[in-house]
Amino acid sequence: xxxxxxxxxxxxxxxxxxxxxxxLIPGFFHLELKDGHLYGSLIDILxxxxxxxxxxxxxxxxxxxxxxxxxxxxxxAISATVAAMLIxxxxxxxxxxxxxxxxxxxxxxxxxxxxxxxxxGAWNGILxxxxxxxxxxxxxxxxVAGRGLAQLFTDGQIITVYYQPYFFLGSGYLFGLPFSLYLxxxxxxxxxxxxxxxxxxxxxxxxxxxxxxxxLAGLRTAVLIFFVYVFCSACAGLAGLIISANxxxxxxxxxxxxxxxxxxxxxxxxxxxxxxxxxxxxxSVVGALIIQTLTYTIYSLGLPPEINMVVKSVVVFxxxxxxxxxxxxxxxAVQGGAA
Length: 339
Known about the structure:
This protein is mainly alpha-helical. The protein has helices at residues 8-24, 41-64, 72-87, 106-130, 135-154, 164-171, 179-197, 200-209, 211-216, 221-247, 259-269, 281-300, 306-322, 325-338; strands at residues 31-34, 37-40, 90-94, 97-101, 159-160, 173-174, 177-178, 249-250. A two-stranded antiparallel sheet has the order 1-2. Strands 3-4 form a two-stranded antiparallel ribbon. A hairpin with a 2-residue loop joins strand 1 (31-34) and strand 2. The radius of gyration is 21 Å and the shape is globular.
């Protein structure tokens, strides 16, 4: 039963990758406690995977409704840019000590950044659910225009943040672990609660399996589709805050670049079908960890970074084959002929 479980393949792939790291990278599983903070390769992978996990959670619900959102990276850039521009940092003297203060109260800056992300999700939702545009075309509009807007806001420059409390979102520690992991855990818990303890998860699956039948059964499919795009952008907006807080700046040109492709790959690696219907939040998290572990492995072994893209393309090819009914039929025929 365990072998046939949907999570068996992604968990097995992650386990094999970790085993490879154990053999090739000295001290890979070593953890060290310094100043009450845990350090090590595993902690670094989890911390760097946090934005991807958030993007993958939002993408999971979109794909479950037979949709796709390729504007995730642009939303990350917009959210990071808005937060960095509003917070900034001005050097003042407090009690004779030079201190940086935020140009705008941090709470309001974070609300504005998340509000911008929600507006992006609402835009996608209106185009897909309201106007009936194809999801890839609708989100392509924001993918191009969104990053362009972020670049216009910053005049193509990198906006540096000097406000120390803001850095806590991306590089702070709480009870020995990176604070970003608590943000991811909170979003995951909330999403799992909505999907498993309410009828929302069942409705989303119904829309993904057969949207026409769902509408005839009385479900407000447009509202559900609108919701998943808003939720996806909200996750991307939070990921943008973590990224900008970690690097202490906002780069509208490169922030979240190709993150949507990694999110889609993480979702498919986790067992969610691009055809819609059933989905797995845990599987998407495992898929994101596979991608980040793979990236860490390639860099740690001193291989050229370009190999990372080649490996990802091979993984995408294998995932597509695993979800192809025609390939499965051909494979069974080959096995039958060989027997």
